[in-house]
């Protein structure tokens, strides 16, 4: 008699530490809630592009600590001698090169285990059709919010309405059903230029999302009730049914890594009064030009408020600004206004390069957060109950900003110069920091975030919305 094959969920993140960590967290979540009960195992397919000792160490640690999570490493493939292309086109192409390897891996796995689902991160679309042909159900893990998913599902419809590239439509707003309008120049970078090969890949991504067996979204019902309702109404995929959607957030990535000692900024926060400090951080890639760094310093100094600010080195290559992980040591004094650090030493702290953001946000001294509006940062603020000033820089952050400010009333906006840099003046920094920390609006937001914090924990309660959604998803997988 043939023995019953092991039920397995295969997760396939795109290259890069952040994507791998998020998928591992999803795997852990499935195991914690249902792994033993339903005897499910998790297998991650990971590419070797951009592999680093940090990635290898991480994979080894997870494999040792979680026996039910294993990894299948794809062979490295060479891109060859192409003319230079955009960063995003390269990402899609690198993943495409591994498509036959993924297919082969799935075929081999099917000999020994039962693949209940393949969960792709949204850049890994090249594995979609092959997996479907093998009879494997295909799901996507959408790491950002429901409103953004709605906009992505609607992009194929919007794209049909324009012949010019979005980057040239400087005065045009794109209109989505029941969502705030978006300036055409604020679409995610791969969509800006119709001649960039990443444009077609991104459009395919949006179309594939609508064809999936399901999309897993890192949000929760109580946070995005309106967007979730509109998605249920099916207005974003006009000619077909909206795929089943599972809201299983907040899922927070364990970004801290190994920490030898408590970060010095946390000891500094211990000495500050409750809710008195504004925290400023611009994500993993938020590297601001020197001129902008100086303006922030001036604004913070004039605001008179306590602050904790993570400063990255300014971009080395002006054309790649904000796009690359730019964590290289640098001389802080050289980019700040002269004498700034001495003048603010009794109420401000500047951390170079990287700070333990999740721990900082949870510290009782933090009263507000100036953020680039990356979705992980927003969820971390929700879980910590800290209100926001939204200052978008790249990727889908302008959409997040619009949704946070105009749709959910969760953030104070900053006024940005209407150019690619989105420059913000020192006066504006001062004004918005004061508004966040001192005004009636700031107070209202603080109260709102306290309620959101409670509902975030509620979502993972015994019969909370995210617990129920995850249970439904895993049952669907088990039924096959
Ligand atoms: N982060 C951190 N310290 C820093 C900067 C960022 O721990 O100094 C973490 C932050 O907590 C979050 C992630 O990096 O988990 C950034 O993710 P997000 O989605 O907000 O933005 P992205 O970097 O993807 O643009």
UniProtKB/TrEMBL annotation:
<feature type="transmembrane region" description="Helical">
    <location>
        <begin position="138"/>
        <end position="155"/>
    </location>
</feature>
<keyword id="KW-0808">Transferase</keyword>
<dbReference type="InterPro" id="IPR035595">
    <property type="entry name" value="UDP_glycos_trans_CS"/>
</dbReference>
<comment type="pathway">
    <text>Pigment biosynthesis; anthocyanin biosynthesis.</text>
</comment>
<keyword id="KW-0472">Membrane</keyword>
<protein>
    <recommendedName>
        <fullName>Glycosyltransferase</fullName>
        <ecNumber>2.4.1.-</ecNumber>
    </recommendedName>
</protein>
<keyword id="KW-0812">Transmembrane</keyword>
<dbReference type="InterPro" id="IPR002213">
    <property type="entry name" value="UDP_glucos_trans"/>
</dbReference>
<dbReference type="InterPro" id="IPR050481">
    <property type="entry name" value="UDP-glycosyltransf_plant"/>
</dbReference>
<comment type="similarity">
    <text>Belongs to the UDP-glycosyltransferase family.</text>
</comment>
<dbReference type="Pfam" id="PF00201">
    <property type="entry name" value="UDPGT"/>
</dbReference>
<dbReference type="GO" id="GO:0047213">
    <property type="term" value="F:anthocyanidin 3-O-glucosyltransferase activity"/>
</dbReference>
<keyword id="KW-0328">Glycosyltransferase</keyword>
<keyword id="KW-1133">Transmembrane helix</keyword>
């Amino acid at each position: 008699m043939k023995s019953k094959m092991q039920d397995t969920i295969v997760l396939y993140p795109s290259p890069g530490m952040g994507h791998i960590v998020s998928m591992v967290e999803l795997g852990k979540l499935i195991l914690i809630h249902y792994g033993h009960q339903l005897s499910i195992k998790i297998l991650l397919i990971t590419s070797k592009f951009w592999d680093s000792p940090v990635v290898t160490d991480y994979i080894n640690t997870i494999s040792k600590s979680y026996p039910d999570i294993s990894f299948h490493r794809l062979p490295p493939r060479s891109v060859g001698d192409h003319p230079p292309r955009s960063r995003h086109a390269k990402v899609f192409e690198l993943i495409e090169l591994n498509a036959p390897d993924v297919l082969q891996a799935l075929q081999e796995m099917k000999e020994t285990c039962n693949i209940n689902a393949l969960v792709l991160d949204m850049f890994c679309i090249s594995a979609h059709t092959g997996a479907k042909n093998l009879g494997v159900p295909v799901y996507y893990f959408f790491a950002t919010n429901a409103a953004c998913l709605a906009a992505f599902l609607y992009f194929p419809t919007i794209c049909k309405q324009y012949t010019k590239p979005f980057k040239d439509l400087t005065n045009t707003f794109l209109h989505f059903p029941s969502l705030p309008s978006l300036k055409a120049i604020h679409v995610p970078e791969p969509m800006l230029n119709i001649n960039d090969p990443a444009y077609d890949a991104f459009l395919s991504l949006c179309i594939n999302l609508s064809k999936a067996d399901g999309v897993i979204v890192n949000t929760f019902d109580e946070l995005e009730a309106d967007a979730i309702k509109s998605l249920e109404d099916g207005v974003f995929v006009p000619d077909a049914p909206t795929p089943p959607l599972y809201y299983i957030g907040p899922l927070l990535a364990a970004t801290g890594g190994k920490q030898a000692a408590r970060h010095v900024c946390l000891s500094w926060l211990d000495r500050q009064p409750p809710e008195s400090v504004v925290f400023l951080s611009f994500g993993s890639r938020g590297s601001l030009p020197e001129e902008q760094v100086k303006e922030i310093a001036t604004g913070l100094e004039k605001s008179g408020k306590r602050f904790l600010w993570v400063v990255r080195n300014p971009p080395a290559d002006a054309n790649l600004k904000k796009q690359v992980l730019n964590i290289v040591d640098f001389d802080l004094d050289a980019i700040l206004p002269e004498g700034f650090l001495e003048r603010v030493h009794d109420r401000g702290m500047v951390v170079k390069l990287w700070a333990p953001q999740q721990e900082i946000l949870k510290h009782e001294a933090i009263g507000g957060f100036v953020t680039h509006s990356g979705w992980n940062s927003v969820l971390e603020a929700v879980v910590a109950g800290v209100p926001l000033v939204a200052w978008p820089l790249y990727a889908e952050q302008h959409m997040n900003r619009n949704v946070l400010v105009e749709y959910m009333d969760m953030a104070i906006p900053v006024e940005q110069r209407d150019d690619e840099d989105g420059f913000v003046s020192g006066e504006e920094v001062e004004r918005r920091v004061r508004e966040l920390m001192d005004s009636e609006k700031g107070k209202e937001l603080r109260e709102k975030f306290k309620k959101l914090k409670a509902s975030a924990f509620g979502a993972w309660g015994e019969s909370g919305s995210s617990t129920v959604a995850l249970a439904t998803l895993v049952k669907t997988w088990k039924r096959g």
